[in-house]
Amino acid sequence: MEYGVVLPHVGPQARTQVVQRIQTVARHAEALGYHSVWAADHIAMPVNITSKYPYHPEGKFPIDPTDNFLDPLMVLPYVAACTTTVRLGTGVLIIPYRNPIVTAKMLATLDVLSNGRVILGAGVGWMQEEFAYLNVPYHQRGAQTDEYLKIMKEMWTQEDPKFQGRYFQFSDMRCEPRPVQKPHIPIWIGGHSPAALRRTATLGDGWYGHVFWRDPDALPREIQTIKDLATQAGRDPRSLTYAAPTYERTFEDALRALPHYEKVGLDHVVLAFFMWTEGFDEVLTLMERFAREAGLKKR
Description:
The structure is a single chain. This protein has one domain: Luciferase-like domain (TIM Barrel), CATH 3.20.20. α1 runs parallel beside α9, α3 crosses α5 and α6 crosses α7. The protein contains nine helices and ten strands. The chain is an alpha/beta fold and 299 residues long.
């Protein structure tokens, strides 16, 4: 398996010295042999969130809305300039929140600047209040995500992109540069709903599932569902990447879970070390310990 690290761009770790901390974690991850670093996405949150977070048994979002939450499309270019080999992932970018043509341009530019290191983790979103703030229709988020991802693929792969959809129509247009990665930036679909699994099987290059205090038997079921749906869609399920961020209750739990993740077929596991400690130095220590336990090769 490959391993990634969530950057300290959100929550208590982002309250002070956030620029230095992001740079330090990114460079440390690269030096220790981690494959990727990740930045999540929220734009504006209510002080009192009433929407149910789908990855917590009690529906509670684990981030304080009054804490800093730096934008992933600003964080990752900075990290690209601080590193040379580690992959740069959005975990996940909430696709309906942004104009897809602008998003495609920004991600293609980042792929060029980073020499082909971008992974687009893509999700539909869940926080109804945030959709309202952005004047984005919550109940159309799935349809919008499907269309927006098709638009991005069209723009990234075609010299003369054309599109006729429900939300966007365009032709006789140029939008350069296109990504370094061919045929396009890999798209890993976030979520575990039936729609998300279908989206992964039909539109994605991988799955960015979620292991968050959930039924441990859910993971293999969801992976198998994706494989079955991909086969039905005429795709080779072996061509997909199966990834998941893990927010186990403790660092020790995360270590113990690794054999299970490998057994069920995960290719890539992303860890949020700041969930297990409030001390920044301890984050670095845990990263080092995990790298040793997982047998990562230092660069």
